[in-house]
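Note to self: keep these together.
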Amino acid sequence: MATTIQVDESTKKKLQSFGTKGDSYDDIINRLYSMAIKEQLRQLLFEGEAIPIEEAIAEAKKKWPK
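Structure:
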């Protein structure tokens, strides 16, 4: 089901700059969303918020021993 969203003319032009021939605004927004998700994951992994897998496993074993 399609919906309508309102954006300023300047925002519309910015969105158009990310599109290629034949792209709908939905295509562009979904592409930008995918890029944003990847950037969030990159920040989590490379900006000190992630822990090594061995440490995560050790913590999990402490919380849920067999």
